[in-house]
Description:
The protein has 280 residues and is α/β, with parallel strands linked by helices. 41% of the residues lie in helices and 22% in strands. It has helices at 18-27, 55-68, 83-96, 121-131, 141-148, 158-171, 215-228, 233-253, 268-277; strands at 3-13, 31-42, 51-53, 74-77, 102-105, 110-111, 114-115, 136-137, 175-181, 187-194, 199-206.
Amino acid sequence: MKRILTIQDISCFGKCSLTVALPLLSAMGIETVILPTAVLSTHTMFKGFTCKDLSDQLAPITAHWRSEGIRFDAIYTGYLGTEEEIDTVIGIIREFRTEDTLVFIDPAMADNGRLYPAFDEHYAKKNAELCAIADIAVPNITEASFLTGQPYLESYPEDYVKDLLRAIAALGTKTPILTGVSLSAGKTGAMGYDPAEDTFFVYQNDRVPASFHGTGDIFSSVLAGAFVRGMDRAAALKTAADYTALTIAETLKNPDNPWYGVDFEATIPALLKMLEENGK
Length: 280
Ligand code: PXL
């Protein structure tokens, strides 16, 4: 069985970060090791959330793993609370990475043109250092603009997306994949760039007209899992994008749908079918 390490916070209530990554990756048949960076009462879109930073636990936990000889096929990082934590995580990746380890970075810090409440531009630049050592980094357009210093545009031509992708590759990312990319009216999806081949790859599906918190974590978890399962880029992007869209659509059917997250629990059987259909 493949084994992935995911490094993110636990937002106890709110359906994001580890409470999404762990169930989805486990359902995908991947042993999922967690390294919680902080425990929050809820995600930071709630007012009055509590937060206990666990940064001082990262070194002793990983030192123990090292003494046990534990290895990972992939390391997937999500929301990280502070710049110091990013430095620690860079150290952990350097230590545990082997030639075969997939380093998958989701620089979760911003959306819709704005940084999340806990972050500033200095933090964003620090995240660029993490993306620099990624095999795959999956910023959305807002995050990509903060990472690269390029302007944020709400509507854009395809060349804008390509420029952002090239700028992320210039940071050092081997394969950048931009999420939330809309290349025509009513469509949304992702576009990636292979700097070695100087080629772009893209997947678009119908936009479900709603936006929910945590959908970035759902997309990233499934995409990371799909790559770990050995899917090629096209199949991995399609699976992650289709699953996210389906999950948003299912959530909208729920008359009491929660604003703070999506009903991904209801669509796990469909995800397993998608994996079967892709032969992985
Ligand atoms: O979904 C990303 C995320 C993860 N963790 C925490 C967050 C957010 C987004 O706001 O606040 C604590």
